[in-house]
Amino acid sequence: MRSIPTFSVARLPEIRFGAGRLKETAEVAAQYGNKALLVTGGRSFVSTPYWQQLQDALKAKGVAWEWLQVIREPSPHLVDEAVAKYRKAGIQVVVGVGGGSALDAAKAIAGLLTSGHSVMNYLEGVGHGMAYEGPALPFIAVPTTAGTGSEATKNAVLSLQGDTGFKKSFRHDALVARVAIVDPDLLASCPQELIAANGMDAFTQLLESYVSLNASPFTDALAWSGLEAFRDGFWAAWDPAHPHRSEGLSSIAYASLLSGITLAQAGLGSVHGLAAPLGAYFPIPHGVACGTLVAEATAVNIHALRARDPHARTLRKYAQVGRLLSGVQGNDDNAAADMLVRLLHSWAERLKLPRLGAFGMSAEQVDKVVENCRGGSMRTNPILLNYEELAQLLLARL
């Protein structure tokens, strides 16, 4: 009989998943008040008929709104500026509709509109070290991409790009969305390169949480379900001409949602540990960073585990994923894990994911990235990687 180890489950939002569920957004918002702040991305949602449908539905429910667009990854300045602008506007509920940038900005703003405090009071690692005490305004998350899983997490990722830049989280249970409305129909307007980058982010989150040091039977079950959905739907979603694209979009929306849940519960690994400084120092989209690193990071983890912990259960997990994604069941664990690495390399080539050098990174900057990658994600990598292993990983993707 199997003994189930101890584990905990952090707060999650109410989740409403399915095609057409965007229409429920206005009704949900009206439950929290009659004045909303709508936070959207720059183009993908507001250029579709869904934007007018949402506005009409809010008007029909008697909900007035202010509107903020987030064009790029949100900065602390953007959040503070929005809080100052809208704090006296009578906002009762914040609705984020967009990709991870829009949702993270909305999440942070909802957390600060009541107090008016600067987000720099609470930003991990670079802030003033104050404890966030809330309260947060109700936040409704409506993702329009399938990648970050931000609709299911308690952290808002904020960035300052440049030589002294950073990519850090404002994190608290009070920031979790009250309701996450996940409508796969909203993904149809995403360009192919966005489906590729965001999809690889979701995949990486599922894989890293599955092999995380903090993984549990709860997160394993969800991550496995997400990996199955990704396998079945990603390529159909990626190909605009695929006859089953709508089913593919539904599969990757589900995979992305589960990736947000599992990362929030189990943590991530070396890919996300490196993606944080890479995104701070170079203009590399987060999903591209994940997609271009995941094959090499998986290879480095497997090599390090074989050398230093050859009986680790994680090696069996990598093999299980290799069998799942390849469809080949007969190989031993070593062969199956190696097959996973080859498959991930082939995905990077098929998706034409750019290497790090395309964003201005050189070998001389590897030290700086490695020195600043030991954040929260790296702490749950299945094995502690040394400097040489991390440098090797980056150099292989320059």
Properties at a glance:
alpha/beta; 8 strands; two-stranded antiparallel sheet; six-stranded parallel β-sheet
Give an overview in words.
This protein is an alpha/beta fold. Helices cover 48% and strands 11% of the residues. The protein has 14 helices and eight strands. It has a six-stranded parallel beta sheet with strand order 1-8-5-4-2-3. α5 packs parallel to α9, α6 runs antiparallel to α7 and α8 packs antiparallel against α9.
Task: Please outline what is shown here.
By secondary structure, the protein is an alpha/beta fold. The chain has 14 helices and 8 strands. The mean pLDDT is 96.
Set down the secondary structure blueprint.
Layout: E1 14-17, H1 25-30, E2 35-41, H2 49-60, E3 64-70, H3 76-86, E4 93-98, H4 100-112, E5 139-143, E6 155-160, E7 166-171, E8 179-182, H5 192-210, H6 217-238, H7 245-266, H8 270-281, H9 286-308, H10 313-326, H11 333-350, H12 366-371, H13 376-379, H14 387-396
Parallel strand pairs: 1-8, 2-3, 2-4, 4-5, 5-8
Antiparallel strand pairs: 6-7
> Segments where pLDDT lies below 50 for 5+ residues?
none
> Which percent band covers the strand fraction?
5-15%
Number of strands: 8
Radius of gyration: 20 Å
Written as H for each helix and E for each strand, in order along the chain, the element string is: EHEHEHEHEEEEHHHHHHHHHH
Number of helical elements: 14
Shape: globular
Largest β-sheet summary: 6 strands, parallel
